[in-house]
Amino acid sequence: MQSEKKSGLSLKTLFRSALDAMLIPFLAILTAVVLGGIIIAIVRGNPFLAYYGLIDGSFGSAKALSETAVWATPYIFGGLAVALAFKGGLFNIGAEGQLALGATVSALIGYALPGWLGVEIPTIIHLPLAIIVGMAAGAIWAAIVGFLKAYTGGHEVINTIMMNYIALNTISFLLNGPMKDPDPNNVIARTPLIADGARIPTIFEGLRVHWGFIFALLVAYLVWWVLNKTTLGFEIRTVGMNPDAAKYAGINVKRTIILTMALSGMLAGLAGTIEVTGLNYRHELGFSIGYGFDAIAIALLGKSHPLGVVLAAILFAAMRNGATRMQFLTQMPVDLISMLQALILLFVAADAIIRYIYRIKAQGERVVLTRGWGG
Amino acid sequence: MDWKRFGFILLIIVVLFGIVVLIGRTESTPIIIITSMMATTIAVATPLTLGALSGVFCERSGVVNIGIEGMMLSSAFFGWLTAIYMYHVFGFGQGISIFVGLLGAIVTGMLMALLLAVLSVTYKVDQIIGGTVINILAVGLTGFLNRQMFFGQGSVFGGEIPNSPGTLLNVHVPLSEVLNPICGASADCVEIVRALNTVLDQRPIAISAIVLVFVAHYILFNTRWGLRTRAVGEHPKAADTVGINVVKMRYANVIIGGALAGLAGAYFTIESVPSFEPLLTNGRGFISLAAMIFGNWTPIGAWTAALVFGASQALNIKLQLFREVIPPQWAFLQQSYVVGLIPYILTMIILTGIIGRTTPPAADGQPYEK
Fold this sequence. Notes:
The complex is a heterodimer of chains A (about 375) and B (about 375).
Chain A: H1 11-42, H2 47-59, H3 62-87, H4 95-117, H5 123-152, H6 156-176, H7 211-229, H8 231-241, H9 243-248, H10 253-280, H11 291-301, H12 306-330, H13 336-349, H14 351-358
Helix pairs in contact in A: 1-2, 1-13, 1-14, 2-3, 2-12, 3-7, 3-10, 3-11, 3-12, 4-5, 4-6, 4-10, 4-11, 5-6, 5-10, 7-8, 7-12, 8-10, 11-12, 11-13, 13-14
Chain B: H1 3-24, H2 30-60, H3 68-89, H4 94-122, H5 127-151, H6 175-183, H7 187-200, H8 204-222, H9 224-234, H10 236-241, H11 246-272, H12 284-294, H13 299-321, H14 336-340, H15 342-352
């Protein structure tokens, strides 16, 4: 972000700018943790024990680390989805719906395709197919909103939210009806298990962490590369910074908006797909609730930078994962985490408050998303 | 509101009502079905109307408020919690507890709005991010306290959620008392009057929502306050030049908006049902926003749009009621996902501008920099 403006780019300045960029999120987290500790103390808990539980439960053992990585995987994809849209000046609140849709569709490919074709499909074909179809579903779902934004001006914030409800209602119908696990003992709205050929293998024997986590890190690098090293990325960022200027520079703004939404939805769809193929091996109604807002928080905390998103995703994953241990040690409800995350987000969004508390001077660049409602 | 949009609204409402009359024709007379549908529509449109009014006040002064959902959710929770505390812990009577709960909800909405104002007016945070912060904070706060207050260590309620003191009661409009003597012996006439009475006998928040629509209209377009609010939302620099305090006006209007969203939240737990569950607002804050946009940032327009959404929700409720008599070719409508999708799809159609373009206040969403 900042490094681009400087001409003589040495390793030192790069390091320096990375530190600068991380300062505000770090202080925001610190402030939220202190405030959270005060809240825990008010409700008669022991904040030190609670935070110890959080850290121990998320990083304290091989199993804890594995579970943190498991939690982080969809968070990385989801955070990247929102961050990419942010770069293009779009606010994708619909990651939740795109994610659920991707999960549903890839589950369908995962369990039903062998039956339709009447043959066992080898992993090398089945798994990529399930993933690609899930990505496509997310991409198309989001591209509809991009299309409406580009050609009618319908604001993406409300439209993605509406698409969320439409997706969740439809999925609820599918999982209770045509796609419901036919096992007579099953009372839950969920699909049957996907075929072995559509599953992502785990990395270590006995731990749940799977190759999807490594894949997520690769995709994060890929997103960074696309945004910063390709023409498409340049167009996305230019449209995000100033659509009018982009238009005069000869960029097809409408096409870029649709593409940005599609890519964003694709990443969100990927989050759902990887959860199905790598972890749950089926789609169950409701597993995705809350991922959309978490993804927004992660993108904001990561300052929309892929590396920042990865770090923020791991932090959020660690909190979610450590929450059970915290609850066990202190009887603090797991929901405390949601509040902590909201506080972190509050301070990241309102960095002026953090700057005021810690007396840090303001620096350029601010996100601008609100440009009227269209319609 | 122009004829095109008004015609659209009328058409949708006629279609929705028509479906119910057709389906229920073996069960009841059209007049009874229509009036009971109207009664339900007005009741379920209440939070949407109030939410949309909240949006109108915020955005007319130039602050985009997508935090209505979060404001509603937190007010619904804290209003309900206040009522329970008043009733069970402090031992007040039922009526007073409910009333204080109502006030608690409104104050909660105002506090959340204050936070939005601090973020977006003072700290000039992007307003959509500010609203998102409110929404996420509301989910976290209500989820945490809902568990902690009732099931946490040392909870006064000792691990169970006590009964709330109840809900606000229907206000009886003495229409039948006045009109029945005029009807005389005509049984049909008495029947019609009784049917009309079911429409008018609403609960207090539903009635106040309708009153507030017209109050808001009057304030915005016929008072000095309204003129200043609109000036600040259209051209803050000009307003500032003639001596209007932009920051103060924005703060005040956002907090008024918060009070209205708080009342909308109270509808859920103080008026509709005496209980709370996490995420109970279920997107109605966002639908309110769509109603506001469709109503072109006017109170009356927003209200009519809210009625459309209310009618589609009412249709859903009535379909469940007529479950037994529904003809097989209509049975698919009963799946709540079919009719349940109407508000969402309608919202998206409205936003495309096919049914008339809308114009937001010119400075909507822009922080004011002197």
